[in-house]
């Protein structure tokens, strides 16, 4: 059995989930059949240490929400974004972290950059490569007063694994 990015991202998500739980965070599971509202049906709510309640939406529900008009905020680096990204009409690329010689550092302008192109009432799905950066970015956005922001579980890797529409540079098509 070979290496699978999907398995890696799932394992990483579980490690993060366990970390949040051991730090006193609360995890609540919602009944999938309780409502037809895709934001409130069958998703995990993570009360992260920042105090924001982050809704993580699986990749299938994310695709439906994006197709219904939600904005997609890709928080990967510009380099990652240019290699390929979620196929969506309303897509933004605002990196949450930058790669530096010292390692990854948080984009100090992240919230102001998002605020310059989105208002706090916009419906936004936040994604990254595997779902880790987007979880933190979503928590920051919620703490900053954005009201309808959800994290896309599994990130771009899950999107690709499910065969959903991807946009790549013309040279790679």
UniProtKB/TrEMBL annotation:
One of its GO terms (molecular function) is catalytic activity. This is Rhodanese domain-containing protein. It holds the Pfam family Rhodanese. Residues 66-168 form the Rhodanese domain. Coiled coil: none annotated. The keyword Nucleotide-binding does not apply. It comes from Quercus lobata. CDD domains: RHOD. PROSITE patterns: RHODANESE_3. PANTHER family: THIOSULFATE SULFURTRANSFERASE 18. Keywords: Signal.
């Amino acid at each position: 059995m070979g290496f699978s990015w999907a398995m890696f991202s799932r394992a990483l998500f579980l490690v993060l989930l366990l970390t949040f739980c051991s730090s006193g965070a609360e995890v609540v599971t919602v009944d999938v059949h309780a409502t037809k509202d895709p934001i409130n049906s069958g998703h995990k709510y993570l009360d992260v240490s920042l105090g924001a309640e982050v809704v993580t939406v699986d990749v299938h529900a994310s695709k439906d929400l994006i197709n219904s008009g939600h904005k997609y905020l890709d928080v990967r680096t510009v380099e990652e974004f240019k290699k390929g990204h979620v196929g969506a009409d309303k897509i933004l690329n605002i990196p949450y972290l930058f790669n530096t010689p010292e390692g990854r550092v948080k984009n100090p302008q992240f919230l102001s950059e998002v605020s310059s192109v989105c208002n706090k009432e916009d419906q936004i799905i936040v994604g990254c490569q595997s779902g880790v950066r987007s979880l933190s970015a979503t928590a920051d956005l919620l703490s900053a007063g954005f009201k309808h922001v959800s994290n896309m579980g599994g990130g771009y890797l899950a999107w690709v694994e499910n065969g959903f529409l991807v946009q790549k540079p013309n040279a790679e098509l």
